[in-house]
Specification:
The protein is an alpha/beta fold. The protein has 12 helices and 12 strands. It binds S-adenosyl-L-homocysteine. S-adenosyl-L-homocysteine is lined by residues 10, 33-35, 38, 56-59, 62, 93-95, 110-112, 115-116. Residues 10, 33-35, 38, 56-59, 62, 93-95, 110-112, 115-116 line the site of S-adenosyl-L-homocysteine.
């Protein structure tokens, strides 16, 4: 049978969330009724700024089917993300409050609410908007007004649906909860009807809620209640990222080793190796080489001085310096004296010049949180 929509309706719902995430850049996202975690997978791929991605479903077997696909790949270690990312999957019911659901920027409920008994909806509404109280909520649910257009449909769209709301019923629910919990709502949807039936609305109706900043009080009242942990953690993974000092150090050492080896080979052979070696250029009488993308990371920028120590050791008799633009400069041997004079100037505040680090600098001093420095010692290499 031909799908009614292209792309299929479920994809359009996910895409709606992805676009919202790309626009609003939430850091913490919780997907309620995540099932096989398809939306979470999409968000992991497209939601660059997300730091915490959590899924919840009452059915652990459905979550388990593909949850191990979240395990980091070797490429995630070779090219770590610049920001942190933790993914957690919980088993539990959306009708029960759990402290792990506090503090989210966005909570999504995609085709979930119609699976709850109508008396559970009341409890769910209280838990979601009163207890979790996220900054933004996206709720999608079938639009019953559209059902007459679905060929061969008898009853509800899915055997587990307990109800399907008309646009009016959905909007009444949404507006009432906004009033109770201090949210502002806008209505939209996905699955546009054929032209002749435009009065039925979207096939999937969507409400987007934003917490009303002038009404923080109502949400906070419920949030202040202490609730015990009731959800069961099924899966948790922390992705390697440059925000972790150990990963940052290891990545930088690898990058420097690799790049310095290329520079050294090219330099010693007297020929720059096309494609594999960085394109050299001249700055004054010095040969300059741009370094890898990882050097653009803000944390790395602040560590450029320290990198000199590695590069120096690796380059043997060649002198390499880093400019503020993160270019490595291979210095002719007879300019060493001049460089040291420049360093003195810098130390006295010639702010626009670049500096080298001294032999006494170390990673631990640069990175105060690092308690596990396992760097190789390049001194005197
Ligand atoms: N959001 C997913 C799946 C929707 S199907 C998607 O769009 O693809 C609805 C899901 O809600 C099912 O996986 C079901 O197990 C889950 N669910 C139903 N009642 C629930 C409850 N009380 N608490 C948590 N999850 C529930």
């Amino acid at each position: 049978m031909c799908p009614l929509f292209s792309p299929p309706l479920f994809m359009q719902r996910y895409q709606f969330v992805v676009e919202f995430v790309q626009k609003h850049e939430p850091k913490k996202v919780l997907d309620l009724g995540c099932a096989e975690c398809s939306l979470l997978r999409k968000l992991k791929f497209h939601g660059n700024g997300i730091e915490l991605l959590v899924g919840l479903d009452k059915d652990s077997s459905v979550m388990r089917t593909r949850m191990h696909s979240f395990a980091p790949l070797s490429s995630d270690y070779l090219q770590p993300r610049s920001g942190p990312l933790t993914i957690e999957l919980y088993q539990g019911s959306v009708t029960q409050p759990d402290p792990s659901t506090h503090g989210f920027d966005l909570v999504t409920c995609i085709e979930l609410i119609e699976h709850l008994h109508i008396e559970e909806v009341e409890r769910f509404t209280e838990v979601l908007f009163g207890f979790m109280a996220p900054s933004n909520v996206i709720v999608s649910t079938p639009n019953a007004d559209y059902n007459p257009l679905l060929p061969g449909l008898v009853g509800f769209r899915h055997h587990d649906h307990k109800f399907e709301w008309s646009r009016k019923e959905f909007q009444l629910w949404a507006l009432r909860l906004c009033d109770l919990f201090g949210y502002i709502v806008s209505f939209t949807g996905v699955g546009v009807p054929a032209d002749s039936h435009t009065n039925v609305g979207f096939c999937s109706q969507i409400a987007v809620f934003n917490r009303d900043p002038s009404r923080q009080d109502s949400a906070l009242q419920c949030r202040s209640r202490e609730e015990p942990t009731v959800y069961r953690l099924l899966y948790s993974v922390v992705y390697p990222s440059l925000s972790d000092n150990n990963i940052l150090q290891r990545t930088l050492v690898n990058e420097v080793l690799c790049r310095a080896e290329l520079i050294k080979r090219s330099w010693l052979s007297g020929e720059w190796v096309a494609k594999t070696a960085p394109e050299p250029f001249m700055q004054g009488s010095s040969v300059c080489v741009s370094l890898l993308d990882v050097w653009a990371c803000p944390r790395v920028k602040s560590l450029c001085g320290t990198l000199w120590r590695f590069t120096e050791a690796l380059m043997g008799e060649l002198r390499v310096e880093l400019t503020p633009a993160r270019h490595a400069i291979i210095m002719p041997a007879d300019e060493e004296e001049e460089v040291e004079e420049d360093e003195d100037e810098d130390a006295e505040g010639a702010g626009t010049k670049w500096t080298t680090t001294t032999a006494t600098e170390d990673w631990d001093a640069e990175m105060p949180n690092n308690s596990n420095s396992n760097l190789p010692d390049f001194h005197g290499a």
